[in-house]
Batch of 2 targets.
Target 1
Amino acid sequence: EAGGRHSPRLVLALSPMAAKKQNPLHVQWYDFTRPVDTLESEQAALAYFAQPDVNPFYERNSLNERVRQQAGMMDPAIMRQSVGLEYEVVQSQPPHLHVLRKHYRNSPSDITPMAYYYIARGSAYQCPDVSSMFMSRLSTTLHHLNEAFGKATGAVTFSPARGHEWAQRTPTRDQEALEQKFRADTAGSRRDHTRETALSAQVHNILGGMEAELASNHKRPAPALPGQPPKVPRQ
């Protein structure tokens, strides 16, 4: 089912299998049957997220689902003593922002982070990894550079007598109208951006902490000095 409040993303509420075939960073999941104001606690956010029949980010073979089927609820004490895939709320600012971590639990005190998700005003997204963020921003930068060079090349004229020079063009009425529309659209976008600044800042701060955790989890051991055994990183 497509459509929703965030048009750039694919909104799926009834077809998780179709969503798994998409790039998870381009998927938005939203449960239209539950009001956002009901996510008043970490337990409520986890229950909202843990819907295997509709949420493409949630896996049915997780510890959460197995414990819920056996004990009737997602008991953290039972999951902590188990081994397997687990979802856990790591940060929460109810009712509008919750951050969940998907990790593999090896022991009660040892986990391996695998992915992060956040629920912002009822919409669930997968947090982007560093590589995806870098490639996206690099692609955007190259696109704007190509456009700028294309416009600059079109504004240069050449004659044998005078060589290369910038063409002096007088803007037409259509160009002036487009410029005015651009200024108006930019002003509107700035107002919308101001409204979202607080939530965006919270999300970016949380993502920064997650990137640091993932990076530390995959650090390579430093090379051993001659005559010393190699150091094994602590888990």
Note: The chain has a mean pLDDT of 79.
Target 2
Amino acid sequence: DNNSRYFITTALILRIAKRPIGVTSNISCGKSTFVSPFKSSPTDSSLTGSTKVIDLDAIAHKILLPPSLHAWNFPYNFINSYGPILSTFGKNGDTNILNNDGTINRTKLGGIIFSDPEKRRKLNKLTHPKIRTIMILEILLSTFLGSVLIIDIPLLFESHLQFMFSSIYVISLEPEEQLKRLKNRNKELKEKECKERIESQMKLTKKISLADHVIDNNGSESDLL
């Protein structure tokens, strides 16, 4: 099946590519903040030997954009989920998930899929293979450039991708603090919606048990960095 082919292809690619470092956690636990100091400056032309961060959330956002916005942006002009998502989740009446500019309203889409596991599986089926394809392209490019590679990947364990990584870091946060930070970050969400997003993910305690390294993020941002 497609999953088997993906795992076999990835295993073969990793025979020639550097195995990256994986950073994962759950929503609003601070993994993106943790990796932010490692991101190369966009103005830095000396990429060889640098540390490169692949942000899978950012990739997921880009493949939701209309293809017209990626006319010259490879690989997103070829690898895109915009059309299939509109066909599956609707763009008219009560199911309208579009903003006025034609882009997908991620908050509305989230409201549909986080309260319905079956719809969430449908969305994952439309997006995850394309996200993984772009990730593999980025891994190969980083190997060519000699970069140390860190992948910021929310669903590392859920996708059974542990084999890809030389080491895995999990960012730890107490549940009460996680809910508080999510409510502060996404003020448009009601508490019920915040809890649905948290509960849709694998338990953080399980991820911690599978990690090589655990980073406590219950303090301030400066403590984390």
Note: Residues 41-48 have pLDDT under 50 and may be disordered.
